[in-house]
Amino acid sequence: MRRGILSLLATGALVASGTAACTANVSGTGGHGGKPRIGVILPDSKSSARWETADRKYLAAAFKAAGVDYEIQNAQNDKSAFTTLAEQMITQGVDVLMIVNLDSGTGKAVLDKARNAGVATIDYDRLTLGGSARYYVSFDNTAVGTLQGQGLVRCLADAKINRPVVAELNGSQTDNNSTLFKEGYDNVLQPKFDSGEYVKGPDQWIEEWDNTRAGTAFEQMMTAQPNIGGVIAANDGLANAAINVLKKQGLNGHIPVTGQDATAQGLQNILNGDQCMTVYKDVRREAAAAAKLAIALAKGETGVTTTKVYDRVGKRDVDAILLDPKAITRDNVRAVIDDGYVSADEVCTADFAAKCAAAGIK
Ligand code: BGC
User: Fold this and answer.
1) What are the pLDDT digits (tens) for 13-64?
2) Which atom of ligand 1 sits closest to the CA of residue 181?
């Protein structure tokens, strides 16, 4: 029954008739006799390990604990699959749709469809520019970039690299977060370029956060400017791609590389001395905050937010929750493991046993 009504709703048939059933859905009560239902679309499983290893797990746990119906899908970096998944969720009668967009264009199309069908919407982690999401839940992404910039400055000082040429491997240009990360680290680095303390090096967006493309791009950077002395890599995957190139030239560990996401691989690269730092974003808190909002909306309640984020394309303020990121270096890798975010087993594989012991990780 519920599905029937809601598929009509999605096609617009019931919206036009303006019945009570439609109104109930518009207010997100999750009525129609069924349990509240929430749909989530994750972006891919390659640009970062986090989506499948952390976000899915913690979102599912929160939905289960609240006893709501939920579906979590992964678009695997395919924009048409992303759209199809969203359309299916809307047709099947979700009360709330939560997305991590692949770009703002496809994100907006899906959010608008949901809104027209009376489905409440949440942008998760990535803000859809010009979109219509009711809420946005993420980390303070400019602060993430600031930590990366500051981390690199510290590692360059520790390595005593004089007038380093700094290269930048930015994330995907279609991800608003990449712009914010870059804003954060450029704010730290620009004064150093201006004063001549550092030298501005190659600076490139990596399409789709693709690690293979990042490796190729960094190889070309090293060929064009063999004296690169420091690398801003926007996440641990891009960092690992750069480290692999440095390894071929025996330069790993000599040229500091930043990262983000505190992935097991990133933490291992830090323990090895090949990666200068990573940014730990406790996805458990992000998932819990987003799930709490989604559950409230699905039950027809209003969500509680803590701040507003300005969408410069849509020229509107979006009610938001932004969490604080934390910098991780060799000195505090342990904190991520002690926190239970990544397990010692994942990081301390045979090759890393001694390094883990030295870092106090059990
Ligand atoms: C997320 C990062 C992630 C990147 C690639 C960004 O939007 O905030 O945590 O590493 O996408 O998936």
Assistant:
1) 322 222 222 223 333 344 445 789 999 999 999 999 999 999 999 999 999 9
2) 8
The rounded distance, in Å, linking the Cα atoms of 60 and 281 is 18
Residue 10 scores a pLDDT above 60: no
pLDDT digits (tens, 9 = 90+) for 306-356: 999 999 999 999 999 999 999 999 999 999 999 999 999 999 999 999 999
**Residues 32 and 25: beta-carbon distance below 8 Å:** yes
Contacts of 25 (CB under 8 A, 6+ apart): 6, 9, 31, 32, 93, 95, 117, 118, 119
Beta strands in 224-300, from DSSP E residues, in sequence order:
228-233, 278-280
Q: Which atom of ligand 1 is nearest to the CA of 125?
A: 8
How far does residue 74's CA lie from ligand 1's centre (Å)? 14
Q: Best of 45, 50, 206 to mutate for ligand 1, by most ligand atoms within 8 A of CB?
A: 50
Q: List phi, psi (to 5°) of 311.
A: -95, 110
Q: Name every protein residue with a CB atom under 6 angstroms from any ligand 1 atom.
A: 47-48, 50, 125-126, 171, 175, 177, 209, 235, 260-261
Q: How far is the CA of 89 from the centre of ligand 1 (A)?
A: 24
Nearest ligand 1 atom to the CA of 43 is 12
For the CA of 44, the closest atom of ligand 1 is: 12
- Cα 197 to middle of ligand 1, angstroms: 30
In the numeric block, which tokens belong to residue 352? 């890393």
Residue 264 sits at φ, ψ, to 5 deg, of -55, -40
Residue with tokens 């730092």: 277
Cα three-residue angle 138-295-324, rounded to 5 degrees: 20
Protein residue whose Cα sits closest to atom 3 of ligand 1 = 48
Contacts 24+ apart (CB under 8 A), 186-189: 186/145, 186/149, 187/145, 187/146, 187/149, 188/146, 188/149, 188/150, 188/152, 188/153, 189/149, 189/152, 189/153, 189/232
